[in-house]
Amino acid sequence: MSPSYDHHHSEGSLAAAAGLTVFAAVMLLLVGFLDLLRGISAIVHDSVYVHTPDYVYRFNVAGWGWIHLFLGIAAIMVGIGLFKVSTWARVLGIVIAGLVLLANFLFLPYYPLWSLVVIALCAFVIWGLCVVRHD
Fold first, then answer.
1. Integer Cα distance of 83 and 41 in angstroms
2. Which one of 38, 75, 78, 91 is separated from 130 by 20 to 30 angstroms, measured CA to CA?
């Protein structure tokens, strides 16, 4: 006799869903704090970053700093909201992680290795939030 799974979830699948949501929340908080620090350093002392003269997406480094600062604050706020496991936080988490990923892609020439690390973290956040299905 096989157990019935008509809209019931096993304890393992619920634990995995909760674990992935917490993982995504922690990673989004980490990404938010990293972007917040990057934004502050770019605004206060932009000579830390490499200036690339022939880059297609050229933008003032202090301008990038403001973008990273605001995205970092948004990521921190949504990361905190993810601990409540609400649908709005999951959707906003995917959107914010996507925007942070895009901003770091465009910031690659200024700080390549760090941008790649943050891109990877954002990809994990998006994966963690997309894989979980809550009823």
1. 29
2. 38
Mean pLDDT, to the nearest integer, of 35-59? 75
Compute the residue count for the chain. Answer: 135
CB-based contacts of 125, cutoff 8 Å, min separation 6: 24, 27, 28, 31, 93, 94, 97
What pLDDT was estimated at residue 21?
A: 81
Burial of 4: CB neighbours in 10 Å, binned 0-12, 13-18, 19+: exposed
2 pLDDT tier (thresholds 50, 70, 90)? very low
Query: Would you state the pLDDT for residue 1?
Result: 46
On whether the CB atoms of residues 31 and 121 are closer than 8 A, the answer is yes
Residue keyed to tokens 């990057």:
38
Q: How far is CA 53 from each of CA 89, 110, 120, rounded to the nearest angstrom?
A: 39, 11, 26
* pTM of structure: 0.78
- Which tokens in the block code for residue 14? 């619920």
